[in-house]
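Class, discuss our next protein.
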Amino acid sequence: MKRNQTRRPTIGLSQMVPGAIVSDAIYRVDEAKARMGWRDAAFRSACRAGLKTYRVGKRVYVAGCDLAAFVTSEGGQS
């Protein structure tokens, strides 16, 4: 049986349009990365550049307003 390496799980993700960021929403890291089109390295780079994350227990979240502020600020520019 051949494994499909390109398939990614989407169970539990919001039913909203992929890529849409709502400023008053809270996103899990995997959902934020999917909506922004980021991979792990891009997310880590954004965190080093100043993207604010919130840890609750072992889970990490990102606020939509923080994502928008990061992308529109100097920290989000290459």
